[in-house]
Amino acid sequence: MPNILEEMGELKYLYLPRSIHDMVKMALGNLVKLETLKNFSTKHSSVTDLQGMTRLRVLSINSIEGQGCNMDTLSSSLSELRHLENLTISDKTLLASGLVLNYMNLKQLTLKIHMPKLPDEQHLSSNLTTIYLEKCRLEEDPLPILDKLPQLKEVRLWRNSFCGKRMVCSRGGFPQLQKLLFFKLKKWEEWIVEEGSMPLLQNLEICYCLKLKELPTPIQEWKERLSEGGEDYYKVQHISSLTFR
């Protein structure tokens, strides 16, 4: 592959292949007008190339490896991206720690990396509205950190994002949360929802969490009230299909 991308200084959108030959190296430092960059890999480009892309709004990174690249250098390069709104980081082999993601305008965050603990809330953007975690293998409950993010509206905890047995939604937590999804959390057994948590929740999905013993009391009561014969059934009886799975 000829190294011609560095000459495309007016480029605003670049979608790289997900799979690139190991021998390919790309110089991207001149692409200072990029607004969207998909499938960036530090194996094929320098992580410092990102520092000049100050207009980036959407960035997905699908590999973090190579000489001189670690969480510190990645966090340092990303800190220059003042307009970044949507960030995805994926890596099958990386064991991440010390990740700092408190970028001012960051609203959507997807993490598919092995990390025993989620960054503390002070290391996450307070403007986050959506977070999607998958294959993180978190050992510590992420909810007490996430429920302190004031603008969070959607949380997806996907397959193997959490490997513990117990999660807790704190009293008054998740003040703006509207959508919460749990999918294929194989070891999850207990979920506690304290009073006043998730007051605006509209959509809850729990799929293939086979060890979860029971729904928290507030969620179970909500289900009973909305089921046929329940005291709040009149609120949903006009809906042609209402399913509790």
Automatic annotation (TrEMBL):
Entry annotated with the keyword Repeat: yes
Keywords: Repeat
Matches recorded under Pfam families: LRR_14
Residue ranges occupied by any Disease resistance R13L4/SHOC-2-like LRR domain in the UniProt entry: 2-214
InterPro entries per the UniProt record, alphabetical: LRR_dom_sf, LRR_R13L4/SHOC2-like
PANTHER family for the chain: TUBULIN-SPECIFIC CHAPERONE E, UBIQUITIN-LIKE DOMAIN-CONTAINING PROTEIN
Protein name, per record: Disease resistance R13L4/SHOC-2-like LRR domain-containing protein
